[in-house]
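Researcher: Please generate the 3D structure of the following complex. Treat every line as part of one assembly.
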Amino acid sequence: MPRKANSASAAARSAAALLDEVLPLAEPAAVEVHHHAAVLEVSDPAQLVELAADSTLRPFLLCRLAANVALVDPGRAGQLAEALRNRGHTPKVLSPGEPL
Amino acid sequence: MSASPPDLPHILTRPPQPFDPKVLDGLRSPEVSKVATFWVGRGSGLSKNERVGAVLKAMKDDAAAERAARSLGRVDRETLAAYRRYGGTVNGTVIRLDLQARGVLEVVEHVSTYYRSSHWRHNPLAGLAERLALVRNRRSSYWSPGYSSETEKPFPLYSLHPALLRHIEPAGPAPWSVPALKAAPQPEPVRLPAEVALDLARVFAYVTTRGQVRLNKSGELGTPALRSLAKAVPLAEEPGYPLPEVQALYFEVLRETRLILVDDTDAYADPDAATRLSTLATAQQMHAWARAWLHARYWGDGTGIGSSEGYSYSHDEEGDRAAARQVLAWALSGLAHAEDEWFGLSDFLTELYALARDRSYGGVGAGAGSWDPGLVEERGWHKLPPGEERERLGWLDRSGRWYANALMVTLGHLGLVQRGRSQPGARTADCFRLTPWGQAVFGAPEVEPPDEEAEAKFLVVQPNFDVVAYLDRVSAAGAGTLGRLAEAEATASGRVRTFHVSQASVYQATESGMTPTEVTEFLRRHSQNDLPANVVRSLSDWFARRESLIVRAGLTVLAFPSPAARDDYLSRHKGSACGERFALVAAPDARVALANALVSNHRERLRQTLVADEHGRLRATGPADLVQEARLRRLAERTSDGWRLTGASIRRALDQGCRPGLLSAWLEDHLAGPLPPLLERALDAWMGKASPLELGELTLLHVGDLRDFHALAGSERLRPFLQGSVGPGWLVVPRQAVKELSGVLKELGFTVARELTPGPLPTEESELLTEVTPGGRRKRSRD
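Model: Done. Output below.
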């Protein structure tokens, strides 16, 4: 049992390390305001690893804002949704003005 | 449970135009007197300005408007009642036909040896317009030649004065009809409202999934877009009544019902409108489709889209095509009050010609490729001598064929008209009747629509996700909703159809505005059996998958250097926390202003604070924001004093999925000035787009004088000693020929120095814009 726990914990560490490499958590040094921005939200942070590891999707994702939220490359939210659909995902696309 | 039938307005309902007081400014004093006499009750004893003031006051006074309406004579009142029937504004041809049918207008003919002319025995419209009981519409000034009689011209587009609207009782249906067929014909299958709704839903789903459909500059669905639509949404055709570009008709109906919106040259779906339409009764939906056809500017009956009917103003709301559709709708409203009668197409068109022939403009034509009802056997009618018969045949061949296509093909396809043949197989025996829904649409407000079952059990949902639908038991709304959430067989037709529910189809439904609960409840409510457990489970899984991945656009993202700064902001402002240092603000609340913040607009302009040098070094003129930092991390290497573009960094970015165009766009987004040309070429080279270069050792003969150069280069004698040229003034000499060439040149009197004196490197833009080809010739690379 201890071995299994260790193995799970190692896997989690390696996923976190991979995510830090492909989609690092942003660390702003100053106050920033980004108008007309877009984000990708996932229910499980592990999904972000899967998405960011996909070289078709990765260029659309710039950095993580939170464990389960990524900043989308400016002006490309529509293309990201299309690319996600083409990769077999079914993203919910919320238009500007939808409540958070 | 049977829903109560909805009240429908007349199909041609059009509200009156608001009265513009400036109309009075353009009137002369006697004209103002006539207006004042009608509206105020007196016109004398006041100055012109006082009369204008009194008229304007009366037009705002309901009691004065009622008094004015009461003062009207019988014929005037009947005329305004006809306007009131259609909401207040009536097309100039339609009101002519209507008032003729009611006997308000009577034609007086003059026939002589040389010409035939006619005029109105009494024209009440002119007098009503003089009193401003009817107001000429701003859009009524289109071309009308003077050679035809006044009885064959449309009236100007008039509106009933809005103040009179509630004091004029609307007239009933105009007493116009066509003798019904005595014998029952052979009926063709009727298109069900559910079939039409399904086809509309499929075209709508296509636009929803595409996100946007590109239109051409004039706003039409262009050929490439139409081809893509037709390929993605194949629809069943009716060989007997071929509808050109059937998908385009549905696209235009969706556009006119505002389910498809157009922004410049992009068309996109409005899920809210689709949701609203799905709550309407079948009669209301079909009324909306018929109204959409009336106003469909880009659709040509018999011709489809992308075809002109000969007149530049045919797209105008009062142009030929729109006027002809209104005339047809008016005529059908006359037939709609007959109980389930069949009418011969030829009889109908002959009666319409007798009433509607109009020589004041070119009329409409369906074109050579349209459905041919065989109305004119003698194609050489234009060779007949001028006269009634030639005019009649000409009208039938051109305008009659257009009316036949609009009636039998377009309206038949929309389920408003049922086709039949009075003699099976005969070409000229086409006949028709309005379907019960068509009677309700064109017979409104008097004719009530059929009852319909709102909660009809018309589906059988099977464990393999197939859904069998009985379309003759379902409303248009039900069929439309089914079309949004299940995939139909490509070109299936008929009343029993099989659909398939899949993750993709359900996803499409939710993306087009349906909620997961609505999808499940729709299937449950209309299914004859209990929903199979595996179907319910899969639906639930699919909805959860969609909810687990959300793309949220149009936000304002706020970034803070510390969690405390972010929390402090959120304690005083709207927004949602995101991670430890970010806040998200929805668009309506997005007017945030933070002191000393780095501001970036992701839709318009990103921060341009980077300067590049030839070494690939990127120097920042200000702090990098989130976007700059993340993009630089992808395409450059971090150095002790900033970032540097290198071959390795660019290749790494390409390996990670970034395309060359994206990398160039990213740099362009953030550079404060142009890239140094050397770095620009290096970037291309790193991205695999390098032009080949050559580097080696050569022995060159430099000939400074161009006349000498041309003489040497063109010499047959020297050809064995020369290998080529690298540009004007420079000749390449093979190493083994140097000694011999020197001897010949010395013999010819030239002095040959042992050292070369190359000229300066090019600095002018014109010189920089040239490139040297491997053959040594120079050419312009771009101008």
